[in-house]
Design a protein that fits this description.
This protein is 32% helix and 28% strand. By secondary structure, the protein is α+β, with helices and mostly antiparallel strands. It has 3 domains: 59 residues, Orthogonal Bundle (Arc Repressor Mutant, subunit A), CATH 1.10.10; 206 residues, BirA Bifunctional Protein, domain 2, CATH 3.30.930.10; 42 residues, SH3 type barrels (Roll). Bound molecules: biotin. Acts both as a biotin--[acetyl-CoA-carboxylase] ligase and a repressor.
Length: 324
């Protein structure tokens, strides 16, 4: 459940151009007038400029919810993640930029974020639509001491983190569709792109790209994805603060990443499986053009998807085409 503070900010974001009376806020959020007044004072303290007109109500004149290095770092209590943030109003791709910065030696935990991407990239060189101010388009540079074969585990780690954070923030179940998609119901809401620069036994850097559809309405999606994609707003009817979401993701990311480095993959595997899309459901899949049926059972350490065949044999899939 989102906090009162988060809900009041979202309400103001949704009513950007109008005044909201204390009464209206109290009714919409189901809190007392005194609680509204207290929250407004906290917001003012936090850097929001609130205009208050008697008999009319409150309006936020300037909100720190615009993405910038400052607004993202404000209140961010991480130790190493997001200590350096590169923010661009428009960029080709945060992923391309983060890779370039990583080659130039950017430190572990550096973040590249944009309001709009003109050449956002998905897996398999697919286009990733990145509408202006409507979503989270973010890439994180990591320099873990791991072996190249462990790179897929980072996609699964990040999928677990996103599913947990987005479920908590929206109160709807966000599921992980192997290997790199986040789904609400049968619609894709987010995707992960993990890229790596490595030699045989050394990973030089990883760039984890995260794309989340946040505040788009269905008609704003490109027609090619309108029947397949959703946003947090479409799924819940609520407009979300991208800053709050990014900060929650970064906090959780740092903590879970540290656990992963200390404890290994097993705890992630358990959490991943708890949030897996279509767990224990039958799917049709194709390997080497061979059609087969299997029940989704989970993942294994190297990132493969485990399916149970009709004869109860467990098969590990690495790059199967799956009819979900
Ligand atoms: C996928 O679903 O195929 C992965 C999508 C990843 C999109 C993100 S948005 C931020 C970063 N920059 C990109 O160009 N791609 C990733």
């Amino acid at each position: 459940m989102a906090s009162t503070r988060d809900r009041i900010i979202a309400l103001f974001v949704a009513n950007e151009d109008t005044y909201l009376s204390g009464q209206a806020i109290s009714e919409q959020l189901n809190i007392s007038r005194t609680a509204v007044w207290k929250q407004i004072n906290i917001l003012k303290k936090d850097g929001y400029q609130v205009d208050a007109i008697p008999n009319k109500g409150y309006r936020i004149i300037s909100t720190p919810d615009k993405l910038s290095e400052n607004t993202l770092q404000w209140g961010l209590d991480t130790k190493w993640l997001g200590k350096t943030i590169h923010h661009y109003p428009t960029i080709d791709s945060t992923q391309t930029k983060a890779n370039a910065l990583a080659y130039e030696g950017a430190p572990h935990g550096t973040i590249v974020v944009a309001d709009k991407q003109e050449a956002g990239r998905g897996r398999m060189n697919r286009q990733w639509f990145s509408d202006n101010n409507q979503g989270i388009w973010l890439s994180i540079i990591l320099r873990p001491s791991v072996l190249p074969f462990q790179a897929p585990q980072f996609t699964l780690l990040v999928g677990t983190i996103l599913a947990e954070v987005l479920t908590k923030e929206t109160d709807v179940a966000v599921k992980i569709k192997w290997p790199n998609d986040l789904f609400i119901g049968n619609y894709k809401v987010a995707g992960i792109l993990t890229e790596m620069q490595a030699e045989q036994d050394t990973v030089h850097h990883l760039v984890v790209g995260i794309g989340i559809n946040v505040n788009q309405t269905r008609t704003r999606f490109d027609t090619s994805i309108q029947t397949k994609a959703t946003s947090l707003r479409e799924a819940t009817g609520t407009i979300y603060s991208r800053i709050i979401l990014i900060q929650q993701i970064l906090r959780s990311f740092e903590a879970e990443y540290e656990n992963f480095i200390k404890q290994g993959f097993n705890p992630i595997k358990t959490k991943w499986e708890q949030r897996a899309y279509k767990l224990n459901e039958w799917v049709t899949y194709y390997t080497n053009n061979q059609k087969a049926e299997g029940k989704i059972k989970g993942i294994q350490e190297d990132g493969a998807l485990l399916v149970e065949r009709i004869d109860k044999q467990i098969t590990a899939l690495y790059s199967a085409e799956i009819d979900w």
